[in-house]
Predict the structure.
Amino acid sequence: MNKEQTLTGVIRGTGACVPERILDNKEIAGFVDTSDEWIRSRTGIRKRHLAGEKESVAFMAGEAAERALQNAGLDGSSVEMVLAATM
């Protein structure tokens, strides 16, 4: 890249996807000797999302990308880059 060239980028839309199944502390307390209060007070966690058979990282990334395009009001032909992160 020469000195006259500059790199620019704009985030036009964002999207997210989490698994549908939710496992809350009450359900965990049903099969482990603990309670919702005990879990929350030590971890801060109230619920978890558990991926089903068809909810791979690739599937959820595709869903999130579609939502980002909708959020931006764009179709995929005008996108130069997709930035993805998982947690």
Observations:
- The radius of gyration is 20 Å.
- Strands lie at 21-24, 47-50.
- The chain has a mean pLDDT of 91.
- The longest helix spans residues 57-72.
